[in-house]
Amino acid sequence: MDKNNISVEKILNRELLYTGSYLTLEKLQVRLPDQQVCDREVVRVRNAVAVLPVDDKGNVHLVRQFRPAIDQFILEAPAGLMDHDENPGQTALRECEEETGYKPRQLHKLLTYAHAEGYSTGFITLFLGTDLEYTGNIHLDSSEFLEQVTLSFSELVRRVETNQIVDSKTILCTLFSQGKI
Predict the structure, then answer these.
(1) What is the CATH number of the domain that holds 54?
(2) Strands 10-19 and 79-81
(3) What Cα–Cα distance (Å) separates residue 17 from each residue in 10, 27, 52?
(4) Distance CA 95, CA 140 (A)
(5) Residue 1 lies in a domain
(6) Contacts of 139 (CB under 8 A, 6+ apart)
(7) Whether 58 and 113 share a structural domain
(8) Among 113, 105, 172, residue whose Cα is nearest residue 134
């Protein structure tokens, strides 16, 4: 069969391997376009959002937290999982306020992307948050330990350009917000 003839892989079998509080892991047996059978592992997660909150002075309000999967502290835009009864904008407002104490009065949708399309079902919707109101209503989950960090937007851009920011959602928020601030 011609390798350039791409078609949908047909799912022959689905096996649930793990269910946790954040994700489920499935093993799929699929038939490839050339009729071979192989396995695919799929992580099922809820969709998420991230918001880059920028105040009227051009300061960006970020969070710094330890990420055990990559064994390091990272600086990132406030983000979180969508609750089942929320739309992306509602989640962005909630997460931004819960993690930074700032509530954007204006949300500008930047994009929605598949964050790990090779193995995950998750999509992240990114926003630029402006016209911030400081409410001080910080409500972290019991397992969240965050440090709030404020930088100028130009310093954030510099850190993205020098590979000091490794988080994809923060990199994309920064790049897509250029020219909008």
Answers:
(1) 3.90.79.10
(2) unpaired
(3) 20, 7, 35
(4) 9
(5) no
(6) 97, 98
(7) yes
(8) 105
Are both 135 and 64 inside the same structural domain? Answer: yes
50-87: pLDDT as tens digits: 999 999 999 999 999 999 999 999 999 999 999 999 99
State the residue range of the domain holding 28: 10-45
> Measured between alpha carbons, how far is 140 from 142 in angstroms, rounded to an integer?
6
User: Do 89 and 31 fall into the same domain?
Assistant: no
Cα–Cα dist 140/144, whole Å? 6
CA–CA distance, 142 with 150 (Å, rounded to integer): 23
With CA atoms as reference, report the closest residue to 45 among 67, 20, 66, 68: 20
Q: Please indicate, yes or no, whether residues 110 and 26 belong to a single structural domain of this protein.
A: no
d(CA 18, CA 107): 36
Q: How far apart are CA 66 and CA 5, in angstroms?
A: 44
Q: Is residue 63 part of a domain?
A: yes
Look up the pTM and report it: 0.92
How high is the mean pLDDT of the chain? 95
Residue 5 lies in a domain: no
